[in-house]
Amino acid sequence: MGRVPPAGIAVGDEVQSEALHSYVYPLIDEEQAEVMSVKVNHIAIVVEDIERALGVYRDVLGLPLEHIAEESAEQVRVAFLPAANGEIELIQPTTDDSGVAKFLSKKGEGLHHICLEVDSIEAATAEMAARGLEVLGQVRTNQRGEKYIFIHPKSAHGVLIELYERPG
Question: So what's the pLDDT on residue 124?
Fold first, then answer.
């Protein structure tokens, strides 16, 4: 059962931020909200062909192409397109039997995962596992020395989450 907003706060009405804050703030569990520091690092979109996808993300939307790299451990090519608040990564499988290739075959092009940057990947992974989220495998390190791990979409309302820690 949801809370009823106090008088003067109704959907569509303009309200003063103080009144809204006094209604919303008690709904936030401060202990839960401060478990870890996270920010969105990137959104990964699986594509069949990076060059074709660049026709939209670079040429139409105007995102600059930083570079394209092959991540052999994940069997993908990745186009890195920085934006103001993070990055868009276009990922294309390089083999027919990789996890990304299987995802593409089953679900088609679209959102693959959201990557959250954390201060300590070990602490974040332990906390999520302790709270019942299904962690996929062990922490891995990519070619740039960045640590990452994935959280199963069944644990995150249908969204694959990557946890990521920048080196030093």
Answer: 93
